[in-house]
TrEMBL record:
GO terms for biological process: siderophore transmembrane transport. Pfam families: CarbopepD_reg_2, Plug, TonB_dep_Rec_b-barrel. Its main location: membrane. This is Outer membrane receptor proteins, mostly Fe transport. Residues 111-210 form the TonB-dependent receptor plug domain. Residues 236-682 form the TonB-dependent receptor-like beta-barrel domain. It is a multi-pass membrane protein. Belongs to the TonB-dependent receptor family. Keywords: Cell outer membrane, Membrane, Receptor, Signal, TonB box, Transmembrane, Transmembrane beta strand, Transport. GO terms for cellular component: cell outer membrane. One of its GO terms (molecular function) is siderophore uptake transmembrane transporter activity. It is found in: Cell outer membrane.
Amino acid sequence: MMLIPTGLLADGVVKGHVYDENKQPVIGANVYWEGTQEGTTTDLQGFFTLKSKGPEANLVTSYIGYQTVAVAVKDSKEPLVIVLKGEVSLDEVVVSERKVATISSRTSVLQTQKITYDELCRAACCNLAESFETNPSVDVSYSDASTGARQIKLLGLSGTYVQMLTENYPNFRGASSLYGLDYVPGAWMESIQVSKGTSSVKNGYEALAGQINVEFKKPQTADIFSANLFASDAGRYEASTDASWHINDKLSTGLLVHYSNDKMSHDDNGDGFLDTPLKEQVNLMNRWSYNSGSYVAQYGGRFLHESRIGGQDTHHGGMVNPYVIDLNTNRAELFTKQAYILDKEKVESVALILSGSYHEQKSMYDITPYNIYQNNVYASLMYEKEFSHAHSLSTGLSLNYDGFNENLVLNNRWTPYNRSEVVSGAYAQYTYNLNDKFILLAGIRADYSEKYDFFVTPRVHIKYNPFDWFHVRASVGKGYRTANVLAENNFLLASSRKMRIAENLDQEEAWNTGLNLSFYIPIAGKELTLNGEWYYTDFNKQVVVDVDSNPHEVSFYNLEGSSYSNSFQLEATYPFFRGFTLTAAYRYTDAQTDYRNEAGLIYRMKKPLVSDYKGLLTASYQTPLKKWQFDVTSQFNGGGRMPLPDTTHPLWDSKFKDYTVVNAQVTRFFRRWSVYVGSENLFDFTQDTPIIDASNPRGDNFDGSMIYGPVHGRKIYTGIRFNIARD
C-alpha cells in the first residue's frame, strides 16, 4: 500500500524494480539471465524476484517499445533499479506500443484485476458507478427508479457484501453505501483494483464476496495539470480538474476539483415521474505527500456536497401537490498514512493509517422525513518483514468506530435508530514463496465487537504455477459484516411498502471458496489469455431482505435455513492484430435464499432482480501513432426473477426477460489533449413500467424498486481531456 519494496541480492535471490524514463513502473517486463531461459516478469509495481546465478552474471531486461538492457549483477547488497529507455526513432519511423488497459496480475496470490486510467477512458466514466461498463465481473445497476441509487453486484451478491476501499482503507460504508459510487469522479482515479472472494485480513473482516480499491491520482506522479469536460444530450454537464506541485524533492501536493450538474427534466416513458433524478454535486480534495527515503507520509482531506431531487416531474403537466423525493448530502473525510522503513534490505517496515469521516443525509420521501448522520473513525497499525524470499510476515492492530444518529417516521411513528459500534482487532498473515512457483498466503484475525462479542476470521490463498503458461489459484475464507438495514435500503422508502424490522438482528457471517485457472497460450506470435473461475459463498448467518412474502411490505429478519451464491465465469482476451484487442466473457449465477412467509413457512427461491447470466463482448482498436481509438462494449444480460406480485391483483410479471445494452465511443488524440464522442445504451433499451402504479404514488400499490434494467434511454455525449504531463 505505502511500503516500498527494494531490490537486493541476498539469500540467493535477486530483487529489484524496472522503471521507464519517467520513473513509472514497467509492468510485464521480461527479466532473465543472459544465455538462459530462466526468467520472470515484473508485477504491477514493476517489481521482480529471480533466483541468483552467482556473481558476474548478466541480467537482461526487455520490453516492447524499449531498448533491451543487460546489467552485470555482482555480489552486492545494493538495490537493483533498472531504467528502460524508449527505442531510438529513425527517420520517418516511429516505434509505438499500446498501453495495457486492464491488467490481471500474474504474480499476485490473490485473483486481482487492475483497471487502469486508460481503461477508464474507454467509456464516459464520469464516476465510479460508470467505470465498470467494460468489466465482465462487476455489475452496476439502479436500485430504484426515483432516487438514482446504484449498487454493485459481485458474485451474484449485492454491493453491501463487497468491501469498498479508497487507497486501502475502508470507505463508503453505512450511510454512504447507497450513493457512494457517485461520490468518486472518474477523472480523479488513477486505477481500480478488483479482487474476488475473501481478500487479505489486513484490511479487515468485511469482504464476503470481494474487494474494490480505488487509487486516486498521486501528487508525486500526477500531471502538472489535467482537466476533463463532459456534456450529454440529456443536459448533464461535468468538469473535473486536478493539479500537482513538487514543492521540493521530498514534499508535493495535489488539488482535485469536480463539479457536475444534471438538472434537465426527462420523462420519456410518460409516466409522470423523472426518468433520472435532478442532481448537482461539488467535490473537493487536497492531498500532501512527503518522502525522505526511510520515512513516507501522506495527508489528505475531502469535502462533498450533493443534492438530488426525484419523483414526479413538476416541470411538465402543472401537477398539484406532486410526489417529490429530496435528498441533501454533506460529507467530509480526513486521512493520513505514514510508514517508516526499518530495514530496506529485509523489507522491514511499520505503518500507520488513520481516517475519519462525517456523513449527513437529510431526506424527504414525499411527506416522510428520513435523516441519517454517521461518524466513522478507522485506525490500522501494521508491521511487515521479509525474512527471506521464501518467508515473510505481516501483523497489526486495527480499530473501527461507527456512530449512527438515524431517525425515520416508520408506520406513522417517529422512530430513532441511534447506535454505535466499536470493533478492535489484531491480525497475523504469513506468506510462503517457493521459487515463485508455489505461494501460500495464510492469515487470521481476531476482533471484538461491543455489540457481537469476539469473532475470528481465517483466510487462506494458494497460487501454483506448474508451467509459465498455466496458473492455478484457490482460496477459502470467512467474512463478517454488520447490517445497517435502513441506511443501506432507504431507497425502499420510494414505495408504499411498510417496513418490518426484526429485533436483535445477527451479525452476518459467510464462508467463501474460490478456484481460478489462467492460461497464457501463444498463438501466431500473440498471446491468448483464458480465465475460468468458480466462487461459492455460503451464509451461516444473514439478514434477509424479504420483498416476496408480502408485495406491500419489506421485512428484515435473521436467516432461518440456507442462503448461498454460485458464480461461474469464463473469459478470453486476444489481440488479433496490432492495436486491436477483443475480450469475451460469460458468467452464470445461481443465488438462492430461504425466505419465511407470513404463515411462518420456509421456502427457497432465487434472489430477485439478479440475471441468471451475463455475457460481455468488448472490442478496442487504436490506430498507429495513437491518433484514433474506437471502443465498443456489448452487455448481454439474462433474464431472472421478479419479486412475487400480489396473487389476486398482479401488477407486474413474475419474471423479466433477457436484454442487451451496447455502448460505443470514438476518441481523437492530440499532443496534450483528446476529444471523445460516444453513446450509452446505443439501441435505446429501457425497462417497461419501471414504476408500479405511477399514477397513484400515495396509494397502496406504488413501488419504484422493481428495477432490473436501464431506466433511461440512449444518451449521446462528448468531452475534452487536456493535460500537461510531468517530465
